[in-house]
Amino acid sequence: MSATALVLIEYQNDFTTEGGALHGAVQAVMQSTGMLGHTVATVKRARELGVTIIHAPISFTPDYHELSSTPYGILKGVVDTKAFRKGTPGAEIVDVLAPQEQDIVIEGKRGLDAFASTNLDFILRARGITKVALGGFLTNCCVESTMRTAYEKGYDVVTLTDCTATVSEEEQRLAVEKNYPMFSRPMTHDAFLAEVESGAASADASRGYTR
Question: Is the pLDDT of residue 129 over 70?
Fold first, then answer.
């Protein structure tokens, strides 16, 4: 089993899909980075290489009673737009990244950091994962929050720069150029896959066979 996991953060219809509650806010950056297509390609090849695929969606009850009665900041935006409500199409993972049987879907994400209210760390350690690659939404919010915690917990953290999107080109650029290098190894999806393939080839060679 590969010691690498690919964590997909909030690839849900409310972000990814026309008509989604927050799609309009991220659509331009999604298009400029090509993040959805790049992610689909990355997941396909990563599965073939034995990488663990982990989905980290966010969801709430219809009345958002998990949150403060006076939310502010990004979570106020979620409430105001009625995004990510359980049982709605918007909360579902986008069809092109629908979880496969061997994938893991993390439950309980109610805030920004995918580690904070979930058993993500337990799952990673139980599976012997040492490297975590991150993609998803928002570049400078949930992806960055998860990246920082993964770094603090001692994982080898990769952020997939062309598998992320946020609400403006400026925020995308600043997060990728200024913040990501402090807490991760930023790279494109192609560079990440090349690294995984190289590691797999080395492991095969040490066992005396080739792919």
Answer: yes
Question: DSSP for 1-43?
Answer: --SEEEEEE--BHHHHSTT-TTHHHHHHHHHHHTHHHHHHHHH
Q: Say if residue 9 is exposed, middle or buried (CB neighbours under 10 Å; 0-12, 13-18, 19+).
A: buried
pTM listed for this prediction: 0.94
Q: Which residue is listed with tokens 């709430």? A: 60
Which ranges of the chain would DSSP assign to H, the alpha helix? 13-16, 23-33, 35-48, 73-80, 120-126, 142-152, 169-174, 180-183, 189-207
The number of angstroms, rounded, from the C-alpha of 46 to the middle of its chain's C-alpha atoms is 14
Burial of 82 (0-12, 13-18, 19+ CB in 10 A): middle
